[in-house]
Design a protein that fits this description.
Layout lengths: L3 H19 L40 E6 L6 E6 L29 E3 L2 E6 L21 E8 L5 E8 L7 H10 L7 E5 L4 E2 L3 E7 L6 E4 L5 E12 L7 E4 L9 E3 L9 E3 L2 E18 L2 E3 L7 E3 L3 E5 L1 E2 L7
Parallel strand pairs: 8-19
Antiparallel strand pairs: 1-2, 3-4, 4-5, 5-6, 7-9, 9-13, 10-11, 11-12, 11-15, 14-15, 15-16, 15-17, 15-18
Length: 322
């Protein structure tokens, strides 16, 4: 419950916030009032927008939102103050610290009025096409991004210049960097080429994968580094997956002998049944921050590529009798 002092304090903040809002220029647009922008931001054709200051209630957190009612055109000011459970007689209205919007799928990071939003500050991409021709407002400005969904389903994506950063925790930066790791395309090659035979060693390798490390970097510089470790091969005949040393060229280090012909195979090669073999690349992953090793509990330690398939006809060895 709010005390009389709390109510008076919040009422004063409402009046102050309303006065501050009326002093600002209202930005045109269908959601200009309902979705105030991030501090210090500017984009093509926009004046800088202002987020309303948080309400200094007796029981934090609290905040004040000011927006324009699209139906009536009136300026609406709402101050949210959490109730003080230790005071009051139960007859006063309870405050709330619930968000002003309803989160939906990926739009679950913050509210801007009734809009549910997510964003990156700084943005992962610092030269988006949307800001081509929009001058950088200051030498220390950087690009930020947000995407907001309004109650009617309308989605607004916005790239903008800002000088304020919201650096996420190192774990979040590391996971962002991990998400930017891209495994190379490759072809599952085998020897004998085109067709193999029962009880004959078939060699496997990941043609085109390369032997180098791959990296991904977060917007704040945490780097994920994936080092080639091994490949996994599923021969496609119902046997177990085999683990092989990293092989990207013709070699016998990864081999398997089929015990049966592919008469019941689900693939086809030139009209003959074949097994659907598949393979994937497996990397070990480490992280660095400013060039130094970064070790945090729970970070991923391995990266795998999507499975790559190939059809393998397996024939019986024919013996000639004179």
């Amino acid at each position: 419950m709010l005390t009389n002092w709390s109510k008076s304090r919040c009422l004063n903040l409402v009046v102050a916030a309303l006065a501050a809002f009326l002093a600002l220029s209202v930005v045109d647009g269908p959601y200009a009032g309902a979705a105030p922008g991030a501090p210090g931001e500017s984009a093509a054709g926009d004046e800088p927008l202002k987020i309303q200051p948080a309400a200094e209630c007796s029981v934090p957190p609290g905040w004040t939102e000011v927006h324009k009612d699209e139906a009536t055109g009136e300026i609406v000011t709402v101050t949210h103050c959490p109730g003080d459970e230790d005071e009051g007689d139960g007859d006063q209205d309870e405050g709330t610290n619930e968000p002003t919007c309803e989160f939906y799928e990926q739009y679950d990071e913050f509210c801007m009025g009734e809009a549910a939003c997510w964003g990156n500050n700084p943005a992962a991409v610092q030269d988006p096409d949307e800001l081509q021709g929009v001058p950088k407002p200051s030498p220390d400005a950087h690009v930020a991004y947000r995407s907001c969904r309004y109650p009617d389903g309308t989605v607004e994506d916005k790239w903008y210049w800002t000088t304020e950063s919201e650096e996420p925790p190192l774990e979040e930066q590391a996971r962002e960097a991990y998400g930017l790791l891209a495994t190379p395309d490759f072809t599952l090659a085998f020897n004998p080429p085109g067709r193999t035979f029962v009880n004959l060693d078939t060699w496997w390798w990941a043609d085109g994968a390369g032997d180098g490390e791959i990296t991904g970097s977060s917007a704040f510089g945490v780097v994920a580094i994936a080092t080639p470790d091994h490949i996994e091969v599923d021969p496609g005949d119902g046997s177990n997956i085999i683990t092989c040393d990293w092989a990207t060229s013709k070699t016998d280090t990864c081999r398997y002998a089929y015990p049966h012909a592919s008469t019941d195979g689900t693939a086809q090669v030139d009209g003959s049944p074949a097994y659907t073999a598949r393979a994937r690349l497996v990397y070990t992953v480490r992280f660095e921050n400013a060039g130094e090793p970064l070790e945090l509990p729970g970070l991923p330690e391995q990266l795998t590529s999507p499975w790559e398939e190939t059809a393998v006809p397996v024939g019986e060895v024919q013996s000639l009798v004179e």
